[in-house]
TrEMBL record:
Taxonomic source organism: Emiliania huxleyi (strain CCMP1516)
Requisite cofactors: [4Fe-4S] cluster
Highest taxon in the source lineage: Eukaryota
Primary location: cytoplasm
Pfam family, one: Radical_SAM
SUPFAM superfamilies given in the database record: Radical SAM enzymes (SSF102114)
GO MF entries: 4 iron, 4 sulfur cluster binding; metal ion binding; RNA methyltransferase activity
Keywords associated with the record: 4Fe-4S, Cytoplasm, Iron, Iron-sulfur, Metal-binding, Methyltransferase, S-adenosyl-L-methionine, Transferase
Record-given protein name: Radical SAM core domain-containing protein
Subcellular location: Cytoplasm
Any GO CC annotation of this UniProt entry: cytoplasm
Annotated ranges, domain Radical SAM core: 82-322
Length: 379
């Protein structure tokens, strides 16, 4: 009973105390303090060095945190509507193997999945803020790491240490947790079975298979017809609005004709009252960007076509682009260097062109950089 009580206290303290408080927690004893030290070499202790400061009022902030294996992972805190609380955009993987062509993370490939503890530790790094929403829209495809994501949101089955949604922990209502997917349709069922109240956001980004396959390699494996089925299942299972995300790329997918095509695709998915469309004007990538952002007029014209189809539509104007913290901008140079180092190491051991466990091809020494950008998962 004493042990249980102590464990409960520790859990609560670990979940709700800020990092400076943890560091000053002498009464927990040296051993316990060591366990709570974010610089300890534990995979749970995600983060090293100085704890990041909370963002200044009203500012979007990007955090780069070190995992146990030395990799870096990123998370973004944004002011929630109303200005009194925050939305956290958390990552589920270090990198991503989906290879979406407009996404900085997608250009890196996948280093590894985050564990449930690491995902929670990411969110715990900005404790002291009032977190109103947790959005799995950072680095990685959450449903490509579905078990850890489910466990991080609400550890099931018992011992039921409900972490992100636990009233004694971060206490974020499960209906304020959104999981975004690029199209892992089969895992939508897994997620909804474990967490029927969670919100889902489907990243469409194109209204037809030909264009979507060009922008998002996953579409070759999970075409729009399968995605529509998963969306219908989600609407029926949750009886709530499903979010649709659509990045607007100038001259590629932002013509009013694309909007009309999108509206007719969505009409076949479900009633307009069950759909919420977020339009995301493109945010520039590092290096030479492949795309450019549409004008404000083009965004408004696109929106008008969808509104005419009675859809609920919002344009999500960019936040945090100056810090490379906006949608599609996560992933930094250190990570890309680490990825390239590992691939070259793998090429030495396995031979050029061999594919590793994540499906990525080992690069050649001379053309490695270009290969690392282009070569993602084989569908
Ligand atoms: S948009 Fe999402 S799924 Fe696509 S590459 Fe980027 S992180 Fe991965």
């Amino acid at each position: 009973m004493h042990a249980e009580h102590a464990a409960g206290q520790l859990y609560r303290f670990r979940a709700v105390a800020s990092l400076p408080e943890l560091r000053a927690a002498g009464e927990l004893g040296a051993a316990l303090h060591g366990l709570c030290d974010p610089t300890a070499p534990l995979s749970f202790a995600c983060g090293g060095g100085t704890p990041p400061a909370p963002p200044a009022d009203g500012e979007t902030e990007k955090y780069v945190l070190c995992c146990g294996g030395g990799e870096e992972v990123e998370m973004v805190a944004m002011p929630a509507p109303g200005g009194r609380s925050w939305s956290l955009c958390v990552s589920s993987q270090v990198g991503c193997r989906m290879g979406c062509s407009f996404c900085e993370t997608g250009r890196m490939g996948l280093l590894r999945n985050l564990s449930a503890a690491e995902i929670v530790a990411l969110a715990a790094h900005v404790l002291g803020l009032h977190v109103a929403n947790v959005i799995f829209m950072g680095m990685g495809e959450p449903l490509d790491n579905v078990d850890a994501v489910v466990q991080a949101i609400a550890c099931v089955p018992p011992p039921a240490i409900r972490v992100l949604v636990d009233p004694a922990g971060l206490a974020v209502p499960v209906s304020h947790v959104t999981v975004s997917t690029s199209g892992e349709a089969e895992h939508v069922h897994t997620l909804l079975q474990a967490l029927p109240s969670v919100r889902l956001a489907f990243s469409l980004h194109a209204p037809n298979d030909a264009l979507r396959s060009r922008l998002m390699p996953i579409n070759r494996r999970v075409p729009l017809a399968l995605l529509a089925e998963a969306m219908r299942h989600c609407i029926a299972a949750t009886r709530r609005r499903v979010t649709v995300q659509y990045v607007l790329l100038a001259g590629v997918n932002d013509h009013p004709a694309h909007a009309k095509e999108l509206a007719s695709f969505l009409a076949a998915v479900g009633p307009a009252s069950r759909l919420h469309v977020n339009l995301l004007p493109y945010n520039a990538q590092s290096g030479t960007p492949r795309y450019s952002a549409p004008s404000a007029d083009a965004c408004k014209a696109f929106k008008a076509e969808l509104v005419a189809a009675r859809l609920f539509v919002k344009i999500r104007w960019t936040k945090g682009a100056d810090k490379m913290a906006a949608c599609g901008q996560l992933g930094n140079l250190n990570l890309r260097r680490e990825l390239r180092r590992r691939r070259l190491e793998y090429a030495e051991a396995a031979g050029e062109g061999a594919r590793d466990a994540t499906g990525l091809r080992a690069p050649s020494r001379d053309g490695g950089a270009a290969c690392a950008q282009r070569d993602t998962l084989v569908w």
